[in-house]
Specification:
The chain has a domain of 41 residues. By secondary structure, it is of the alpha+beta class. It binds zinc ion. InterPro entries: DUF674. It holds the Pfam family DUF674.
Length: 460
């Protein structure tokens, strides 16, 4: 069998699949590092980002009721949240992650948000606020600076040399086999024969090689299929189906998130306090109508949007779970370090980590936190350099890149929304909800709102 694989195409990837023509099923794909890097990037995507991407590209997610949590954030009035503007909600709905630097050079990107090279500074008072007053930068456009002006002064981030060569996860020269269940195995004749035997392929006449050109939209569908089916490659490449629905998770099911958090009706936050939820239960229908919950429970639900898919894949393989993304996770875990570019390139898809600036749920869910690197803003107050040309300010995370003869000075900047910036932590709980005493209504399908809007039949 030929081993040339994944011929790169502009805006797409060319994949060579070995299929069982009789069963119309993909047995495996011969893949190079480009496709495997794209698959491993799935593991690093926060649930909120996945839903945002699907909604932008009109792709069905099949992800059940967590979509209602996402919609609830979009619909909630700002007065109940720590965000200062609607633009700030993007910090939760499509958060910036440590993995972004590893994913920015993927051959096929499903997320075009560039949180890694393009950042934003305060547009107020020229550069005074950035270098003198609040000293903030933002990966997200139009969020409000503490001075009240929008952060929309676009700046290019000059990265450290090591970061400039960070892209992708696995070694470029290695070839892999990817099964229909998203197991990733280094290519070898033995692996090839073993997979054929496992799938009962005894007659070569049923086997066929088919070349597929896949584009970003199909890769996005593949992502969601990996969460809800056991044969995503067959579904997308052979059947061209949209993503099948996942039954709506609910407060009754307690299957996905609650079980993984080992916490249900009365759980414990990071200070050891109980989070209690009052359930309104219909004895007649034997269902939960809705729950009354305070900000702790709502913060917990909102924090699900920040949880990356590798957390689900790592923790949910032992519960009834229709998808196969845990096979992808296990493959990343089992692949030897020699197949990766470095130890950190293996660690990013394997070790779940919250996006930058988020900590809520970290202790409860047992998931790591990420800290932004320190960024430096180098400036020259003589706008016109003595030589007669304009000196652009420089933004970098590597102080050694600042040429002292060119710039008058430099200041470290804090990232807005980060733990050190304190944007989310007015109450010092790291949560999103800003009102300590308001009770929220949480429906059985995880729609969160205020009592007057959600529950016209509630008690007076
Ligand atoms: Zn400002």
């Amino acid at each position: 069998m030929s081993t040339s694989v994944a011929d790169k195409r502009r805006n797409g990837l060319r994949l060579k699949a070995v299929v069982d023509r009789e069963k119309s099923k993909v047995i495996f794909i011969e893949a190079d590092s480009d496709f495997v890097d794209v698959l491993l990037s799935f593991l690093t995507i926060p649930i909120g980002t996945a839903i945002t991407l699907a909604q932008k590209q009109l792709v069905s997610t099949g992800m059940g009721c967590v979509i209602n949590v996402h919609t609830s954030v979009k619909n909630m009035d700002l007065q109940y949240l720590h965000f200062q503007s609607e633009a700030g909600k993007i910090m939760l709905l499509s958060p910036c992650t440590e993995a972004a630097s590893y994913c920015e050079k993927l051959k096929l990107k499903i997320d075009n948000a560039d949180h890694t090279e393009k950042v934003f500074c305060c547009s107020g008072s020229e550069s005074d606020c950035t270098r003198g007053t609040y000293k903030l930068l933002s990966p997200y456009k139009d969020v409000l600076c503490k001075c009240g002006s929008p952060m929309n002064l676009e700046m290019f981030l000059k990265k450290s040399l090591s970061e400039q060569h960070m892209g992708g996860f696995v070694n470029e020269k290695t070839k892999f086999l990817v099964t229909d269940e998203l197991q990733v195995i280094p290519l070898s004749t033995a692996a090839n024969l073993s997979l054929s035997a496992k799938h009962g392929v005894t007659d070569d006449s049923f086997i066929e090689e088919i070349v597929f050109d896949v584009r970003a939209n199909e890769i996005l569908k593949l992502l969601f299929c990996s969460v809800v089916t056991n044969s995503p490659l067959t579904e997308i490449l052979m059947k061209h189906i949209d993503v099948p629905p996942l039954n709506c998770l609910s407060l009754r099911d307690e299957k996905i998130f609650f079980k993984s958090a080992k916490a249900v009706k009365s759980t414990t936050d990071r200070e050891g306090n109980n989070i209690t939820v009052k359930l309104m239960f219909s004895k007649y229908k034997n269902i939960v109508c809705y729950a009354e919950a305070n900000k702790d429970f709502v913060n917990l639900l909102f924090s699900f949007l920040t949880v990356p898919l590798n957390y689900m894949a790592k923790n949910l393989s032992d519960v009834s779970f229709r998808g196969c993304i845990h096979h992808l996770y296990k493959s990343a875990q089992d692949l030897g370090e020699r197949f990766f570019k470095s130890q950190s390139h293996k660690s990013i898809p394997v070790n779940p980590c919250l996006p930058y600036g988020f900590s809520y749920g970290s202790d409860l869910l047992g998931i790591g936190k990420a800290s932004h690197p320190i960024y430096y803003y180098a400036y020259n107050s003589n706008i016109i350099y003595p030589g007669g040309y304009y000196v652009e300010p420089l933004l970098t995370n590597d102080k050694s890149l600042i040429c002292s003869s060119r710039y008058e000075g430099s200041v470290p900047l804090k990232v807005i929304g980060s733990t050190s910036d304190n944007t989310f932590s007015n109450g010092n709980d790291g949560g999103i909800v800003s009102v300590p005493t308001t009770m929220f209504i949480v429906t059985d399908s995880l729609t969160i709102s205020l009592p007057v809007l959600a529950c016209p039949f509630s008690r007076n």
